[in-house]
Specification:
The structure is a homodimer of 347-residue chains. Chain A is of the alpha/beta class and 347 residues long. Helices cover 46% and strands 18% of the residues of chain A. The longest helix of chain A is centred in the middle third of the chain and has 21 residues.
Chain lengths: 347, 347
């Protein structure tokens, strides 16, 4: 199964997302695989056996969102320089979103840009498939605040990789699938209710559908001025949750799951979503054992934290809300007291 | 005087270089000026008076190539986050090449890209005018090894800024002007022999001519696969000189001046340049009190250092040499012993 990601991006670069198609990869130049300690033990051997390159180097980073920072970037860059990786070399990101975001960032700044291939090993990063080319790292001010737009030259999504994924992490990936369905595709949402991800075909279909939707969205709006922001459903709240709870407490998908429920509360209040619809969404999240209720610590601090999120500019917060299931609405005029009242539900 | 830089870059972005046209600048959003301690004392007040923005913040970094590193980038990023600079804000680089390279890099990675305007305060950075959009920082492996391609939204070259420039730094900028003439324009080279940079009109003409040539070159080849590499005349040697001597020992233009003479020695040896032509070039460099003879410490180490320079890949060094005055040739098959014999001249 192969999806052609041919978005009219400013870089004019196109690439393929291959689903279960990773075979022998011949690369005529040096290759450096960037991976983490956990993934390395599970999949590195298999991957290395399939790569034929002039030289093959491995850079292993620590596993976890808390290492997605400038310090790790510097470590990776130094390793690449030590191996004399040059402009014609290719980096391979073998891992989940953290490895992918960081490798993409490194690829975009190493000698002003080298090629990179992504081999996502988590469900979350497979449904993302790097469509849109966002790379980034966190800092003390928030998530993904430093980064670039940079396209991979190919993405290989292997369902084989997902077999070793802890249940909790797999479910976190499902949150992202549910997000896509609620925002863009009611039919897909209905299909999801009865889907069985133990069946390989169901899983592959869901991954494919998410990538297709995301590609369409990004094509319509590369630089996030419009519809692309809709992909941040659940994220405006989710990012603050991750930050308040401390990175590493929740998986990204778990924070998004709780963020979705918060956003839905606001959507209900504004009259965009019925209680029945909100319950259907929450039930689907619960089906995958996802947390849906976050107990926030301090309403005022939580509210203030929105303004450091990069989706808001000039002190206006834009909330991405469902407008029924399968459609979305961006709301920028939600009053402070209304939002804070919603937050009280979770206080 | 205004030059339209409309290169068909991958970013499809065009901008103007304004020569002596900086008047009141109205910016509807937040602005952060990135400058250094030296420039700040000389020009910050004048510049601030001319900028009308919603908020105006200043980030001051230390003066010198030795601070052009990831640590300074992190400091600048943190300052911007503290001031809540957002995606619609504009950064202004007020300073020379170091401030420009770093501000451009920061602008390209801050929240995945914000606008930036450059106000170059050195001759070197004015003749460069950021044409081609290279940004970058150094690390222990070499110069400009980390960076991006990122275009400014405008460049303001003010001859007023150059009046406070130390003679030595001014002359370092002239090295770059001479480089352009030798590589691309014999007529310009002849004109330079009699030019008087105390005359404002001569100076403005030389700046304009360099920017025009560079824009033409970059248009022909954005990603340095071909002719753009010619801009590195003197730099292959120059970078190694800067590195061996220790950053800060020589100004960039001084290292380029010595690098030009080294390259010319090789060009003479290969039969691309006559002794008369090489002498003419060296005489012009000397007219501006530029160093032309570098006494290198260790020939083998100097030679090995070429391979970490990003212009070389897969253990082939490409030398950019003059082919007579006004034309160039890229030489990738220079034998090790020939190059080392040339280096002995400087040993």
């Amino acid at each position: 199964m192969k999806i052609d990601i041919d978005i009219n991006l400013s870089s004019n670069q196109k690439y393929f997302v291959h689903i279960d198609e990773f075979d022998v990869l011949n690369i005529d130049h040096k290759v450096a695989i960037i991976t983490n300690e956990t993934v390395s033990k599970l999949h590195l051997k298999t991957v290395c056996e399939k790569i034929k390159a002039k030289e093959l180097h491995i850079v292993t980073i620590k596993d976890g969102e808390e290492y997605k920072n400038l310090e790790t970037i510097e470590y990776v860059l130094n390793e690449l320089f030590k191996y004399r990786i040059d402009r014609k070399s290719t980096l391979i990101a073998l891992g989940g979103g953290v490895v992918g975001d960081m490798t993409g960032f490194v690829a975009s700044i190493y000698q002003r840009g080298v090629k990179f291939i992504q081999m996502p090993t988590t469900l979350l990063s497979q449904v993302d498939a790097r469509v849109g080319g966002k790379t980034g790292i966190n800092n003390k001010f928030g998530k993904n605040l430093i980064g670039t737009f940079y396209q991979p030259s190919a993405v290989y999504c292997e369902s084989e990789f997902l077999k070793t994924l802890p249940k909790r992490e797999f479910n976190a990936g499902v949150a992202e699938i549910i997000k896509m369905a609620v925002m863009f595709d009611k039919e897909f949402f209905e299909w999801l209710k009865n889907a069985d991800f133990n069946k390989k075909e169901d899983l592959k279909y869901a991954i494919k559908r998410c990538i297709e939707i995301k590609a369409q969205v990004v094509m319509l709006d590369e630089k996030e001025n419009g519809i692309r922001a809709v992909l941040n459903y659940g994220h405006t709240f989710g990012h603050v949750i991750e930050c308040e709870a401390g990175y590493g407490t929740y998986l990204h998908g778990e924070a998004v799951s709780m963020g979705i429920v918060m956003a839905n509360e606001l959507a209900k209040k504004i009259g965009l979503l019925t209680k029945k619809e909100a319950d259907e969404i929450e039930d689907l999240l619960k089906k995958y054992d996802l947390p849906t209720r976050y107990n926030l610590k301090n309403i005022d601090k939580f509210y203030d934290a929105f303004f450091l999120d990069k989706k808001s500019s000039n002190w206006v917060i834009t909330f991405i809300l469902p407008n029924g299931i399968g459609q979305s609405k961006m709301v920028s005029d939600a009053k402070e007291d209304i939002v804070k009242n919603i937050l009280k539900v979770f206080g």
